[in-house]
Amino acid sequence: MALEIKWFETIDSTNYEAFRQIETAKDFTTYAAKFQTSGRGQKGNSWESAVGKNLTFSILIRPTLLKATDQFLVSQIVALGIVKYLESFKIKAKIKWPNDIYVGNRKICGILIEHYLSGANLSVSILGIGVNLNQREFASDAPNPTSLLLETGEEHLLDNELKEILTFIKEYYDKLNVKAYKTFKEVTEKSYIESLYKFGEFAYYQETDSEVIFESRITGIDKNACLVLEKRDGTKKSYAFKEIRYLLNH
Ligand code: BTN
After folding, report:
1. In a 3-state reduction of DSSP, which class is residue 110?
2. Lowest pLDDT segment from 90-104, 133-147, 214-228
3. Which side of the chain, N or C, has fewer Cβ within a 10 Å radius?
4. 26 CA from centroid of ligand 1 (Å)
5. Could you tell me if 96 and 118 are in contact, meaning their C-beta atoms sit under 8 angstroms apart?
6. Of all helices (H) and strands (E), which one includes residue 96?
7. What is the rounded CA–CA span in Å between residue 140 and residue 24?
8. 151 and 115 Cβ atoms separated by less than 8 Å
């Protein structure tokens, strides 16, 4: 099936545009923009991207066969789709939980997903994705950014790369949005862990409401999609997204 992509020169945010079309958009319609005036990031941050340099887009999907409790699976397939796309350039990318995409210690892609429920199932998910494609220099407050250009040494065409990325994500999505997705769920969770940034490696972390820096390693993700950290003395604790910070340059 042909991909449905709607391009905008300038828009407030492609996530907002997808939301405006929530009643009528077909499953897997993509809204992409050369520039967003109110690009949104995680934790209420803004998402900055130089005009016409990067991919900023949102995919509206209707994962109606998925239980609302399985919404983290959507996040996992999006992240894995991006990792596979980057692998096609021989780039070994990792997923920084829950869904930042890193090359080494540098962020190449950010993902902001918004879910809408209908009873016990998902009804619509808006998958907002920003991939740094052709940007060389970034604002100083951007955390360790990189781009496909910086990693490959070559410029890339926005619309070609968007179609490529969508193909990788759609391949996962088509396997996920089926009645019997239990087996695919297990495979996905395993691939996600295998691609997890800092998995099993001792590194430094800080609880959001504390000054204390501590050393731990990631041992997994619990059933609530929280990050499980283990200290050197073997004690474990789970963290929700807003409760923990990675200290990348410690
Ligand atoms: C993050 O903070 O890492 C998430 C960034 C998500 C940015 C993308 S760009 C396309 C879509 N529209 C937005 O306003 N945000 C997402």
Report:
1. strand
2. 133-147
3. N
4. 21
5. no
6. strand 93-96
7. 40
8. no
CB atoms within 10 A of CB 87: 13
Q: Report the pLDDT value the prediction gives residue 140, as an integer from 0 to 100.
A: 64
210 Cβ partners below 8 Å, 6+ apart?
Answer: none
Measured by CA distance, the residue closest to atom 7 of ligand 1 is 130
Would you say 32 and 8 are in contact if contact means Cβ atoms under 8 Å apart? yes
C-alpha of residue 130 to centroid of ligand 1, in Å: 5
Per-residue pLDDT at 143 exceeds 90: no
Nearest Cα residue to atom 16 of ligand 1: 128
Confidence of residue 43 (pLDDT cuts 50, 70, 90): confident
Model pTM?
0.96
Structure tokens at 197: 């940034």
Instruction: Give whole-number Cα distances, 168 to 81, 83, 103, 165, in Å.
Output: 5, 9, 18, 5
Find the residues whose C-beta lies inside 6 A of ligand 1.
13-15, 36, 39-42, 45, 47, 56-58, 100, 110-112, 128-130
13 Cα nearest atom in ligand 1 = 14
